[in-house]
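User: Okay, second chain of the day. Same drill as before: sequence in, structure tokens out.
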Amino acid sequence: MSSLKTKLIFSIMGCIALLTLVLATNTSYLNDDAVISYKYSWNIVRGYGAATWPGGPPEEGFSNPLLVYTTALVSWLTGGNSIYHVISAGRWINHLA
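Assistant: Same drill. Structure tokens below.
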């Protein structure tokens, strides 16, 4: 391959990687599965256990237990128990994954 062609390919790949990084960190979209997971994490952090609603029976209504428990652990360790803190912790964990 010529040097110019190689540089062009790497430039395009770099632009795509940069665009992906910008879009991944600056979007505000949350799908319903993520919101359900964050709700369970929030209840775990507040001491209600893996329940849909505070005071409700424990149940597993989420599809990704690793995200739920990791988000709850990070939120608990950093001292945040508001829903906004839990969502921020979960989004950062998703970006690191």
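The radius of gyration is 19 Å.

User: Thanks, on to the next one.
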